[in-house]
Specification:
This protein starts with about 25 loop residues before the first helix and ends in a 7-residue tail after the last helix. It is built from nine helices and no strands. The chain has helices at about 25-35, 40-75, 80-105, 125-135, 135-145, 150-160, 165-170, 180-190, 195-200.
């Protein structure tokens, strides 16, 4: 009887980073190769700050910045992986600012339809319910605290009361919660508002049959 095949990882991950430029000095080439070997982990880190939708674009900009640095001023001091994480996080911040400015130009003030295009999208009914909650938010705070976890409660208030997006909330929380985790918590909170019992407790519109 033949033994069952074991699942195993591929011997080598597909690299999207190109070979280092021949003009790089040997120490800089070694750091570039180290970044290539750890591309998977660095991409996951980038995804947490830039979301899956913008990961590739942000990572490409970050690696271009790293290559320019290595070419113009040589290898970085200390860990090149820590340096690369800093670049990825900073690049993601700049990228989201650019997106925010684009959204402001595309959507007029008070237009919330952009919410429906996000990864944690809400339905048209949800927009109505969220509007009802905002209008009497102070009265609902005690109930919302019971419905949500502590993190969901803080994130929901920053999103609905302060109008912050996931990236701004992450920064408001001191960077301790990544934009990706903020997005998940906000989605979980909004999903709870879909429950008929919770909508009834909050006194907001029930879901349409």
């Amino acid at each position: 009887m033949s033994k069952p095949k074991r699942w195993r990882k591929a011997d080598q991950e597909l690299h999207t980073l190109g070979e280092p430029s021949p003009s790089l000095p040997p120490p800089a080439r070694e750091q570039w190769e180290e970044v290539r070997r750890n591309e998977g982990a660095l991409r996951r880190y980038t995804r947490a700050w830039a979301t899956a939708e913008h990961e590739t674009e942000v990572f490409a900009k970050a690696t271009k910045s790293l290559h320019t640095k290595l070419k113009t001023s040589g290898p970085v001091e200390g860990s090149v992986l820590a340096y690369m994480k800093t670049i990825c996080k900073r690049t993601a911040g700049q990228h989201r600012k650019e997106i925010t400015e684009q959204q402001k130009r595309v959507y007029p003030a008070g237009d919330e339809t952009w919410m429906l295009d996000t990864e944690d999208s809400v339905t048209a009914e949800d927009v109505v319910v969220l509007k009802e909650i905002r209008e009497s938010l102070n009265e609902m705070l005690p109930l919302l605290r019971k419905v949500f976890s502590d993190q969901q409660y803080r994130i929901f208030l920053l999103a609905e009361a302060e109008g912050m997006n996931c990236f701004e909330i992450s920064e408001a929380l001191g960077g301790k919660v990544s934009p990706g985790a903020v997005r998940q918590s906000l989605k979980a909170a909004r999903d709870k508002l879909k429950r008929p019992a919770i909508r009834a407790r909050l006194g907001v519109s029930p879901l349409a049959e």
